[in-house]
Amino acid sequence: MAAAAPGFITGARAQQNVDMEVLKNAGTPADTLPGSWLSYGHSQNETRYSALKQIDASNVSRLGLAWTYVVGAGGGNQEGTPLAWNNTIYGITSWSVVYALDARTGKQIWRWDPEVNQTAVRPRICCGIVNRGMALYDGKIYAPAIDGRLFALDALTGKPVWEARVAFPQDLYTITMAPRIAKDKVIVGVSGGDKPTRGFFDCYDAKTGRRMWRFYTVPGDPSKPFENEAMRVAAKTWGGDFYKRGGGGAVWDGIAYDPETNLVYVGTGNAEPWVQKFRGAQNVDNLYTCSILAVDLATGQLKWHYQTVPNDNWDFDSVQQLMLLNLNINGRQRKVVVQAAKDGFFYVLDRATGEFLSASPFVKVNWAVGMDERGRPMVNPEAYYDQEGVEIYPTGGGAHNWSPMSYNPATGLVYIPASYGPFLYQATEELKPGATGYVRPSGEVRHLSPSIGPMAPDGVRGGLQAWDPVNKKLVWRADGGGGIGGGTATTAGNLVFQVTNDGWFRAYSADKGEKLFEVKTGRTGMAPPITYEADGKQYVAFMGGLGRPANSVGPNDATVDFPPELFVFALDGKAEFPKPAPAPAGRGGRGPAPEQATN
Q: Which residues are catalytic?
């Protein structure tokens, strides 16, 4: 249910509504709400760049905690990106509870709980009790529930406007990604790629919640009519009874929309099962897994595709963040889509045509020895595995996972939370129902050579990488971070803010990578940062804290190790870091909701 607080910010009602023009201009010189954070990637270009510069390289060392807010019972890592508009900050918990707070004080305005049936859903979740965020458009918040629903709430009151059923957990689908707005439509995809599922993403009418079209990322049963020509083409790259095991291709993160081309860009997940011998045929590409797709918003038809990892055997999803940049490449201004993928390559494609421009390793890679001129990876034949274990670079969690990167137009650099280690692979002898066909080797493994890409310092597991997408090179690196969690944002104040999954909040100079500020939050399971302005004051905000039941007693246990909290920083903030304490009782926030922030 939703509840409005008596002290609602009535003076903020007059702030400009977020329409298509506002979203189109966000993050550009024409931005009319530069102090807001209106979408998951800040703008439809997904750059996580803010023009705010009250906090800059000269004063960032004065950052202090302004206030915190206990968001409610958790269950997994905090992965949500808050939104900020109308002097209000909006957040979402790992169990899909949405809340709205006064962005200046943290006082709760409203709170909405979709009341997910945790007992029923928990065993069906593929890859964690998480939620990465929401969308904001035309006075409404669009939020996913992990149980497969998409709902629209009134942004001022929290009251529900409509609800749509995207997928069912009974079919092993969940939703963990932030929806995106494309014109007057809402785009959202489904998780479940390590279960026997068939990936897809949907387009919904933003006003009514009516589904406009659905695009499947892999073909279904070839004895039945294909949904479109793209599926007919894809079916030729599969074999046997692959469709009985789903095929994979989940869409659980990266989406971007370009108003100029009217194309929706979507990254797709790994092939399922992981090991090719269990997918019905070997040495075939398995379209459109591990791909970047461009789909026409008006028709839902595929315009072009690029497959980063044909015949994936390593869980190398290509769902990572897609950025839309304008870059000068070889003396020519190009409108491109870029991705720092899980497989260790940084991809640059023409976003109108899909033309391959470059793919360069940004970490150590040994599963491939390079790219041919068409952009097809030259796979190291020793990287394919069966009963003998093999050590593959990059790690199975990916050189870059969901943790957001950011792009600063002043430096021309992309800031990537990267992981450097390897991963060990071995196939099972037989495929058990619902399994991936992978097992971690218990004995000796093969170590592959050669490798390509920049080497990390000995003993360093991950760090923040400043990557030049034009010159295809690493400019600077800061050790620490990596893995899955946290993320970055960058600003006109020559800053990169980084949150790491082990609880550090840091600030670096965007041009040189000098560490200018750091603080340990005392939490783990961290979400990425945003920056916003309210009443002329700039803030930095992020969530953190696992909030798992103590000793994993059960989903209704109210005692947690670290309660999930929203941390908000400002210059000269004086609040004390709260000590770990039990979160409010109840299921994912259904119990007593916190009404006041810690000031």
A: 315
Beta carbons of 86 and 112 less than 8 angstroms apart: no
Give the structural domain span for 364: 334-401+404-473
State percent of the chain over pLDDT 70.
92
pLDDT tens sequence across 111-170: 999 999 999 999 999 888 999 999 999 999 999 999 999 999 999 999 999 999 999 999
CA gap 491, 538 in Å, rounded: 11
CA distance 506 to 515: 7
Whole-prediction pTM value? 0.94
pLDDT value for 483: 79
Half-sphere exposure of residue 58: CA atoms within 13 angstroms, side-chain side: 3
Q: What is the pLDDT of residue 167?
A: 97
On whether residue 89 sits in a domain, the answer given is no
What is the residue type of 39? S
Q: Which two tokens stand for residue 290?
A: 């591990």
The DSSP output letter for 432 is P
What are the phi and psi torsion angles at 193 (to 5°)?
-70, -15
Q: Which of 64, 65, 71, 193 is nearest to 127 (CA)?
A: 193
Count of CA atoms in the C-beta half-sphere (13 A) of 383: 25
227 falls within a domain: no
589: alpha, beta or left? (left if phi > 0; alpha if psi -120 to 50): left
Q: Give me the helices (H) in 171-305, please.
A: 229-235
What is the tens place of the pLDDT at every residue in 495-518? 999 999 999 999 999 999 999 999
Residue 397 has pLDDT above 70, yes or no: yes
Whether residue 468 is contained in a domain is answered as yes
Distances (CA, A) of 313 to 128, 199, 225, 249, 435: 22, 17, 28, 13, 14
Tokens representing 570?
A: 């400002």
CA distance 326 to 339: 14
DSSP assignment string, 147-164: TSEEEEEETTT--EEEEE
Q: Which residues of 536-570 are buried (b: 16+ CB within 10 A; e: fewer)?
A: eebbbbbbbbbbbbeeeeebeeeebbbbbbbbbbb
Please return the burial class of 592, using the count of CB atoms within 10 Å of its CB with bins 0-12, 13-18 and 19+.
Answer: exposed
**pLDDT tens digits, one per residue of 322-362:** 999 999 999 999 999 999 999 999 999 999 999 999 999 99
d(CA 291, CA 342): 12
- Give the Cα separation of 539 and 507 in Å (integer): 13
What length is written for the chain?
Answer: 599
Q: Give the model's pLDDT for residue 102.
A: 98
- Please count the structural domains in the chain: 1
SS (H, E, C) 388-428: CEEEECCCCCCCCCCCCCEEECCCCEEEEEEECCCEEECEC
Question: Looking at residues 92-99, what average pLDDT do you find?
Answer: 95
- The Cα 103–Cα 82 span in angstroms is 11
Asked whether residue 387 is assigned to any structural domain, the reply reads yes
φ/ψ (deg, to 5) at 334: -120, 140
| pLDDT at position 482 | 78
Q: Is 585 a residue whose pLDDT tops 80?
A: no
**Residue 2 pLDDT > 60:** no
CB-based burial, 341-351: b 16+ in 10 Å, e otherwise? bbbbbbbbbbb
Beta-strand ranges (E) seen in 49-148 are 49-50, 63-70, 83-85, 88-92, 98-102, 108-112, 135-137, 140-144
